[in-house]
Amino acid sequence: MSTDKLVFYDLHNAEGKCWSPNLWKVRLALRYKGIPFETVWLTYPDIKPTIGAYCQQDRDAPELPTIRHGSTWVYESWQIIQYLEKAYPDTPSLLYPSLPAVGFFEKYYTTVLFGSTRRHLLPKIPAIMDPRGAEYFARTRRERLGMPLEQYGEGSSVGDWRESLGVVVKQIGETGAYVFGEKLSFADILVASILLWMFKLDPKILEDTLGMYDGTEGEAFKAWFGKLRPLAEPDL
């Protein structure tokens, strides 16, 4: 196992806490693996001045999550997870049952599950941010989307992800444990990260989301989240 210090660059909200699903992915992975790390808390306008000279130099707006491990810089959550697997081979693996299987689920998460939440949840982000972060997020997303966040979110609701998340609920109901069966994997952390994002934006959103699924599958899903949530407790 590597002895180099690992530094994790994270986004804080107005309370100085983790909130972003992209950052939860890595934070939960580090907690699960038991890897010691130091957090450098940033707000949006401070990302480029802090890390831009060391990585993602070709980007106008470098992104988090980013880690520094000794002299090595790694960014983007899926790349970070694969790096941690190699750098810390004696820690519990998150690639069960295989790299291709987890990689496929990561694509499903990014394109389908996360995609289904964007219109309803992105407009709620400025309200939980520090003033500088809120201004930056609202301004840059308006530029990217071609409209204010409020307009982008019109007509959206919690029901937007009933079907996409329902696929995961059904899967966990069938396995009775985790997404891919008896062992926790990065697939579970991906889903937990989006639920934690909902909780940090507004606990009622998480409550309504969990309430969409009933019967044995819904109960299995709630029990599954109950097993994942302790990983986040130190950071809530």
TrEMBL record:
Gene3D superfamilies: 1.20.1050.10, Glutaredoxin (3.40.30.10)
Any one Pfam family match given in the protein's UniProt record, by short name: GST_N_3
InterPro entries: Glutathione-S-Trfase_C_sf (IPR036282), Glutathione_S-Trfase_N (IPR004045), GST_UstS-like_C (IPR054416), Thioredoxin-like_sf (IPR036249)
Every GST N-terminal domain range: 20-92
Top-rank taxon: Eukaryota
Annotated protein name in UniProt: GST N-terminal domain-containing protein
Organism: Calocera cornea HHB12733
